[in-house]
């Protein structure tokens, strides 16, 4: 299900070309749901910067610690219920879309951007876990009944969540969310060798929307008329 690597991310390729002698680690034998061109042969770090503007066309940017833009997410309409994941050239990689049934806490990710989506275009789905866990979500690859990955809350000084490959119980990424009053919020991400970084970024962006949906549902259940947007 990996996408074509005819147009790989240029900064990813620059990292691979100039890395020299690096800690290549052990490549994880796991799927690359969005594309193997976004996997590095070593551990890496990046951050997701949130614009904080609800009606902004671009809510999130994925950048490395040298300031290079690796990926971005832009609205596919006025409201951010559909996000376009694109590379640093602006080419569409995938479409992230909230379930049309608003009662379900679920988002689907489709291959590229198509006006009409077929079943074969579905890459993966993210939503509430089958076994309820606080601040956790499961991820299913297309056609699977059991989750392939999970995003789980972790209480640590160094990070507050992690993404796990359920089949091997390997940790793919460790995440630290940072909230600021006077500058954009940041999500600091550490990934292991062989991990699809575009997939990790998509999961973390969808988490922000899913958390907002949970808060709105909880307030609605409590009889509040307040609706939360971010």
TrEMBL record:
InterPro entries: LOR, LOR_sf, Tubby-like_C. It holds the Pfam family LOR. SUPFAM superfamilies: Tubby C-terminal domain-like. Belongs to the LOR family. This is Phospholipid scramblase. It comes from Riccia fluitans.
């Amino acid at each position: 299900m990996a996408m074509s690597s005819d147009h790989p991310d240029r900064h990813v390729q620059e990292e691979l070309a100039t890395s020299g002698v690096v800690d290549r680690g052990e490549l994880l034998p796991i799927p690359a749901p969005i594309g193997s061109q976004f996997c590095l042969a070593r551990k890496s770090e990046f951050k997701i910067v949130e614009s904080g503007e609800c009606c902004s066309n671009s809510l999130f940017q994925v950048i490395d610690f040298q300031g290079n833009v690796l990926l971005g997410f832009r609205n596919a309409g006025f409201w951010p219920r559909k996000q376009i994941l694109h590379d640093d050239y602006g080419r569409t990689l995938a479409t992230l879309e909230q379930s049309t049934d608003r009662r379900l806490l679920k988002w689907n990710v489709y291959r590229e951007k198509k006006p009409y989506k077929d079943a074969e275009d579905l890459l993966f789905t993210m939503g509430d876990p089958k076994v309820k866990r606080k601040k956790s979500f499961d991820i299913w690859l297309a056609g699977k009944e059991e989750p392939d990955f999970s995003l789980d809350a972790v209480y640590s000084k160094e990070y507050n969540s992690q993404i796990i490959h359920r089949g091997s119980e390997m940790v793919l990424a460790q995440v630290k969310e940072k909230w600021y009053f006077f500058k954009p919020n940041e999500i600091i991400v550490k990934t292991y060798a062989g991990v699809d970084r575009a997939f990790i970024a998509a999961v973390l962006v969808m988490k922000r929307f899913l958390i907002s949906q949970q808060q709105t549902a909880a307030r609605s259940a409590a009889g509040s008329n307040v609706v939360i947007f971010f």
